[in-house]
Amino acid sequence: MYKIKINTRASIQWPLLKVIEWVIVDNHQEKIIVSIVGDTNEIKELIHTNQEKILNEQLPFNTKLQGSIAEKIVFFYKNINLNEDKLVDAMFEYRLSHGIRFAHRGTDIPQIYIGKNNNYHEVSCLNEKGGWSYNFNANDLIESILDLE
Known about the structure:
The protein is of the alpha+beta class. It has helices at residues 40-56, 69-79, 85-98, 100-103, 138-146, and strands at 3-10, 18-26, 29-38, 112-117, 120-127, 130-136. The chain is built from 5 helices and 6 strands, in the order βββααααβββα.
């Protein structure tokens, strides 16, 4: 199981903002999964507002597809009947509360999702360059975000 944390440091270009790095830690080796310049309050707001959903909510549709949250979301949009308004709305709400991109509005970052996938908490991404997924301890993420300044 991996650890996920958020590192911040001052931004030289934009003194009111910080460089924010979402980091996966494995055996004391760190891998930055996304780095942006932004406001840490946006991350705190995402977690404060959606902590219960991130810790407990599963995707709003059933699929026999094995894979990451990101893979299942891509599968959903490739296969959904767009006339199913309630399901499309439910998926949008899921993405709104679990997508890192929504915490960093105005930035160009990949679609990265954090949430519960079956019995594990996961951070995952899938795009034209490929995909990845890491299971992590959710309490580590919550603590890292609550410690942000």
